[in-house]
Write a structure and sequence with these properties.
33% of the residues lie in helices and 20% in strands. It is of the alpha/beta class. It has one domain (5-12, 41-91, 113-311): UDP-N-acetylmuramoyl-L-alanine:D-glutamate ligase (3-Layer(aba) Sandwich), CATH 3.40.1190.20. It has a 9-stranded mixed β-sheet with strand order 5-4-1-8-9-10-11-12-13, with helices on both faces. α1 crosses α8 (254-267), α6 packs across α7 (203-210) and α8 (254-267) runs antiparallel to α9 (272-286). It is globular.
Length: 316
């Protein structure tokens, strides 16, 4: 039996509208399409759940219509919710305008999801074999970030911490990031984020520099888009795991799919390189679909991997 994933990052609501072009200041345009759906941390949660892992949403959430929508989406993935909603605030949301060049422009209003207290965190009781996931947004300067770090320091041995620093990694105080990394067992980040942290453009070089910064026995995964990923562990050279060629239509959420599936695979006992190959396959499938939470099911990932194995090709 695999451990649970306790996700303590924020889930918000995405309002995604397609426009030909952004309006000028003071003007307006019509959207050709609009969707309102759960986003933010929900993408990782859905990926891990679809990969067969038991997931608990242990972050904060609000009591208004956005919170209701977030909880309904979590229920649809079989995910339980650890805390009661905040009675005085709603879950935040992000308006994403996608123009004719597929460029995305975001306006975000944060809400109850950013108010996760140490008192609530201490009710979670993770056990050895469990995984805890957090994200760089939760480590941005503020009292709740300090409380999250205090709780992370208190995690029992045998509980593995997963961290994705997100594009805000350059805004995180060095002391905060170092303190979190000292407890991290699985550090997954994009090649751009790895370059920001190390000053090295080559993912292999960046991974080698990041490995000594996490816990002994931990794993660094540098996600490199269509090129797959690089996996690094202490005592060995970083290894590249090739990606799978597909026709991409929407890359939004591919990194989240990779993190969720990689974590679920490690929880099942797969070695990091095997887990990375599975995560690459899931991420490849995810970009063939529109929308952020597009991670495939475990069966769909198996089908791709089985087809590649039988055909002897397909990776590159």
């Amino acid at each position: 039996m695999t451990g649970r994933l306790l996700h303590v990052g924020p889930v918000i609501i995405d309002v995604v509208m397609a426009v030909d072009a952004l309006p000028r200041a003071g003007g307006g345009v019509f959207a050709s399409s609009a969707r309102t759906l759960a986003g933010g941390g929900f993408n990782v949660i859905a990926a891990a759940a679809r990969a067969g892992m038991e997931v608990v949403y242990a972050g904060a959430h609000g009591s208004g219509p956005n919170g209701d929508l977030a909880r309904a989406a979590l229920r649809s993935e079989g995910v339980s919710v650890a805390h009661a909603p905040d009675p005085d605030a709603d879950t935040g949301f992000c308006v994403a305008l996608v123009d004719g060049d597929a460029e995305r422009t975001f306006v975000t209003r944060l809400g109850a999801e950013m108010d996760l207290s140490l008192t609530r965190l201490r009710t979670l009781r993770p056990e050895p074999g469990d995984f805890v996931y957090t994200v760089g947004y939760s480590l941005l300067p503020g009292p709740r970030a300090d409380e999250l770090l205090t709780w992370i320091d208190e995690l029992p041995e045998g509980v593995r911490l997963v961290l994705d620093p997100a594009p805000v990694v350059g805004d995180l105080p060095a002391r905060t990031l170092d303190r979190a990394l000292a407890r991290v067992d699985l550090f997954s980040l994009s090649a751009a984020e790895a370059s920001t942290m190390t000053g090295r453009a080559a993912p292999e070089e960046a991974a080698a520099l990041l490995t000594p910064r996490i816990r002994s026995g931990g794993v660094v995964v540098v996600r490199d888009s269509a090129n797959g990923c690089v996996v690094a562990e202490a005592g060995g050279a970083p290894r590249r795991v090739p990606g799978f060629p597909v026709r991409a239509v929407d890359t939004n959420g591919a990194g989240d799919a990779h993190v969720g599936v990689f974590t679920a695979a490690v929880a099942r006992g797969l070695a990091p390189l095997e887990a990375a190959r599975r995560a690459n396959a899931a991420a490849a499938l995810s970009v063939t679909r529109h929308g952020p939470a597009t991670c495939p099911t475990a069966e769909e990932t198996d089908t791709l991997l089985d087809g590649v194995s039988r055909g002897g090709a397909g990776e590159g």
